[in-house]
TrEMBL record:
<dbReference type="InterPro" id="IPR050097">
    <property type="entry name" value="Ferredoxin-NADP_redctase_2"/>
</dbReference>
<dbReference type="InterPro" id="IPR036188">
    <property type="entry name" value="FAD/NAD-bd_sf"/>
</dbReference>
<keyword id="KW-0285">Flavoprotein</keyword>
<dbReference type="InterPro" id="IPR023753">
    <property type="entry name" value="FAD/NAD-binding_dom"/>
</dbReference>
<feature type="domain" description="FAD/NAD(P)-binding">
    <location>
        <begin position="5"/>
        <end position="301"/>
    </location>
</feature>
<dbReference type="InterPro" id="IPR008255">
    <property type="entry name" value="Pyr_nucl-diS_OxRdtase_2_AS"/>
</dbReference>
<dbReference type="Pfam" id="PF07992">
    <property type="entry name" value="Pyr_redox_2"/>
</dbReference>
<keyword id="KW-0560">Oxidoreductase</keyword>
<dbReference type="GO" id="GO:0016668">
    <property type="term" value="F:oxidoreductase activity, acting on a sulfur group of donors, NAD(P) as acceptor"/>
</dbReference>
<keyword id="KW-0274">FAD</keyword>
<keyword id="KW-1015">Disulfide bond</keyword>
<protein>
    <submittedName>
        <fullName>Putative thioredoxin-disulfide reductase</fullName>
    </submittedName>
</protein>
<keyword id="KW-0676">Redox-active center</keyword>
């Protein structure tokens, strides 16, 4: 492509959409690239309660919040491209992103906002049952388990919130947690313990899953005693659901050879979202940070766009 954008944003989650909004308001010629649906992880989040300014008179989901963010970015003239980037050249004065179709997108600055993806449960045969009993998205798949039994692996905010959401569909939901107490916020725990359909298996991990085409058996191990417990599906159901919510891994494989400083796969930045490469910024869940929430991702995006605007103005 002949056009050199002032700013290219890779990823349309909260960080990328906020960066697009600010880039547009700064009158930067901004391109936002996303390979899938807008919103990233929040697009599949059933309920959001802690984003400042969200709707409080009706239920706010990740999808509704994302839709408003997208409209805001579009309002300020952000260009859009649906593409999967295969190569990132970030070290030169002009940054180049090449997609799987061979199209090249060039920009004076780039904000990397590709987010993260769910961490696998880590049990034997896990991949064989993805979509056949194992899921990482309650809002996507909860209706498949109407009236059945469901298990949730994890103990943080997301795990407990999604477990409570699943109780709207499943007849029984059991949280499997490797510790003897939850890590979720106290307010979330209080709600969970009041939910009569929610149960807990403490000090436990899933070692193995199996079944004849669909998930109907798993082995749970007590991490303190080593005791193994076999869990079988109710014969009338024929299967059960297993949802994993044990954290995320950064989507940074694309940048492994781009010269960026990383820590355990996460991109290092300073407080202004600047990476070690001039004109390259990172925002949201893919960077080294202490709190990964919608509000911090949006803040990252706004800061990154403001620094990109200053960088571009100093080039002129």
């Amino acid at each position: 492509m002949e056009m050199i954008y002032d700013l290219i944003i890779l990823g349309a989650g909260p960080a990328g959409l906020a960066a697009g909004l600010y880039g547009g308001r700064y009158r930067l010629n901004t391109l936002l690239i996303e390979r899938g649906q807008d919103g990233g992880q929040i697009a599949i989040t059933s309920e959001i309660e802690n984003y400042p300014g969200q709707m409080v008179d009706q239920e706010e989901s990740g999808a509704t919040l994302t839709a408003r963010m997208t409209r805001q970015a579009e309002k300020f003239g952000v260009h859009r491209a649906g593409a999967t980037i295969a190569r990132a050249e970030l070290s030169g004065p002009v940054k180049r992103l090449t997609d799987t179709r061979g199209n090249v997108y060039e920009g004076k600055t780039v904000i990397l906002a590709t987010g993260a993806h769910p961490r696998p449960i880590g049990c034997k045969n896990e991949r064989e049952f993805l979509g056949k009993g194992i899921s990482f998205c309650a809002t996507c798949d909860a209706n498949f388990y109407e009236g059945m039994e469901v298990f949730v692996v994890g103990g943080g905010d997301s795990a407990v919130e999604e477990a409570m959401y699943l109780t709207k569909f499943a007849r029984k939901v059991t949280v499997i947690h490797r510790r003897d107490q939850l890590r979720a916020a106290v307010s979330i725990q209080e709600k969970a313990f009041r939910n009569e359909k929610l149960h807990f298996m403490w000090d436990s991990v899933v070692d193995e899953v199996s079944g004849d085409g669909i998930l109907d058996r798993m082995v749970v191990r007590n991490v303190k005693t080593g005791e193994l417990t076999e869990v079988l599906a109710d014969p009338e159901d024929g299967m059960f659901g297993l949802f994993g919510f044990i954290g995320y891994l950064p989507n940074t494989e694309l940048f492994a050879d781009a010269g960026l400083e990383m820590e355990n796969g996460y991109i290092r930045t300073d407080e202004d979202m600047q990476t070690n490469l001039p004109g390259v910024y990172a925002a949201g869940d893919l960077r080294v940070k202490s709190l990964r929430q919608v509000v911090t991702a949006a803040a990252d995006g706004a800061i990154a766009a403001s620094r990109a605007e200053r960088y571009v103005s100093e080039l002129e």
